Amino acid sequence: MSDAASEFDKMLDGFWPYRNSTQAYRQVPSEPIDRAAIYAEIASFAALEDAQGDKGTVSGSLYSGDHDHYAFLGEVFSLFSHANVLQRDMYPSATKFEAEIIAMTSHIVHGTGIGVVTSGGSESLITALYSYREHAAKTRGVTRPNVVIPVTAHVALDKGAHWMGIEVRHAPLTDSYVVDVAAMAALVDDQTIALVGSAANYAHGLIDPIEAIAELAQQHGIGMHVDGCLGGWLLPWIERLGYDVPLFDFRVPGVTSMSADTHKYGYALKGSSVLLYRDKELRANQYFTYPDWPGGLYLSPGLAGSRSGGLIASTWAAMLATGESGYLTAAESIMRTAVTIRDGIRNNFPEFEVIGDPTFLVAFKAAGDLDIYLVNDALKGQGWRMNSLQLPAALHFCITRPNTADGVAESFLVALRAAVEYAREHQGEPAESGAMYGFGGTPQGNATIEAMMSGVLDAMHEVAPAMPSA
Ligand SMILES: Cc1ncc(COP(=O)(O)O)c(C=O)c1O
Hints:
Helix 5 crosses helix 6. The strands form 3 sheets. A 7-stranded mixed β-sheet has the order 1-7-6-5-4-2-3, with helices on both faces. The protein has a 4-stranded antiparallel β-sheet with strand order 10-11-13-12. The protein has a domain at 76-318: Type I PLP-dependent aspartate aminotransferase-like (Major domain) (Aspartate Aminotransferase, domain 2). Helices cover 42% and strands 13% of the residues. The protein is built from 14 helices and 13 strands. It is globular. The site of pyridoxal-5'-phosphate (PLP) has 13 residues, from helix 5.
């Protein structure tokens, strides 16, 4: 096989590892397939794909890792999986579940009990942006909206702003890698709809100076959103354990909204997040009512139309089944693991610099000329899946429950030492790893540059192509 053909083959394997071992369906099978056979095939994928995460060698992504918990949530899900919670007359329990999910989330971040449940962090962030845009248009006549966010704020904000015609003004970081509030101040003008800070941000796990940002927002009479998608369900417990956590939530007067993902450290199934508001007036901006539709009087709180009752019920069940003591125990072991890794890198690896002063997510970059992506290649080769970052090139290890198993942190540090040796030996060679979000473990990497990125998205929605003829 030519080099080009083998590279192509490798790329196909990355996206479609089952292309040679399973049947690909390009149309609905003419006759139903036996349920047991369908189940067996899916179960074989699940067993294979969960194996690495279950070993505790994956950064982020899997937050609980407890298969008994998942099984329980799956059972709860199945009770209402088919139910459309838009039909509240049929499924009034959804109102109870949803209201209580909001109340419990609000309670841990000292909110006012006002919010909505969304499908995930991105929807929470984009919905918040929408509410601020509408609010600014109505109350201040803003027609050319902009939002001022840290460069490290989650990219879903850029996506939402792009969709909604909002200009994004990115504020740089200080030497401590949190947002420079003076730089934010310089970006604010009379068309600014809101400021954003993260608690904590995805890239480096750091908490922006929320109090200073909120104060700036108040000075300008605008709102401030705290992106607590990642930290909202974890930082409150870390704080209660006595760790040093700066104020990041509704205790700060200028904070007017906050997102906290139940499907991350809330240990719920994927597909749920909570967007909290300080007051109902701001929330009302996201409500949509249309009384003149032939299909009936239409009212909807957010982007989604039909929604599964299963997700709402199982999110509620996840909170009850974990309880405060469960969240605290999990936070304690997460912090113990994170501190071992953070201090292990700081004390034993002069080759790296830990970025800022992290809590549960440790990001590190090369202190000298070591190629961090070569380090990642070698970690991958040893079964570790880190998240690759860029600007600056770095890796992060977001600690979740599966990583807290005995010995995982210690064996990570051993693997990291071997990875440093590998990177030294291969210095100057092109690394396979790149910094593509959500692709920490695929062979795609530096080759996947911007020009290819939409091609990648196309590929993710296609059945495996046939092999090229040699
Ligand atoms: C800080 C932060 N905000 C927002 C998001 C987006 O959340 P989701 O992937 O649920 O849309 C993430 C995801 O990791 C995150 O870390």
